[in-house]
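Protein modeling request. Please complete all fields; requests missing the sequence field cannot be processed.
Requester role: graduate student
Desired output: 3D structure, token encoding
Chains: 1
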Amino acid sequence: MIVGKRIQLRAVEVEDLPLLVKWRNAPEIYQHFYGQEPLSLVMQKAWFEKLLQKPDEHLWIIEAQETGVAIGTVGLVHIDWRNRKAEWGRFLIYPDDYRHGGYGSEVESLILRYVFDHMNLNRLQCEVFGENEAVIALHRKFGFQQEGLFREYVFKDGRYRSVAYLALLRQEYLSDAVQARIARYLD
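Delivered output (187 residues):
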């Protein structure tokens, strides 16, 4: 378990799958994922079985410590040990009550410490729909740099959507500014 001040990250269990289906199918969440169709529990179970066999992916449930209530997910995908990099993914916070008040910043802080201090990676990268300004701003707040914009990259909901490509390097993570930001949420 990865523990912060108010939240903790724990492994996904089979019992969590109905909740993941509910969250991923919620319109306010679904719009930010590449998925093209609603998920069923059968599809989620098949995905989970595959996930358990992938050494290059981690997925966690975000729980509020005070209540033990699951409030979201976060993951690392495409973990590349040779090149010491990974991709941030599957990040969602739900319900809306937890989308404010610093929960996202605490999740970001926990993931950054895990990636750079525990896993000893050199690079964390992510793709975010260009209009998802809140998540782009969250990553930038922690030192991520936008390295590109994939124009009209994903066709979803009847239109082509652009995707921002961001990354944070170890040397940027170690900067005083990023360390102070993380300490604000974890120490």
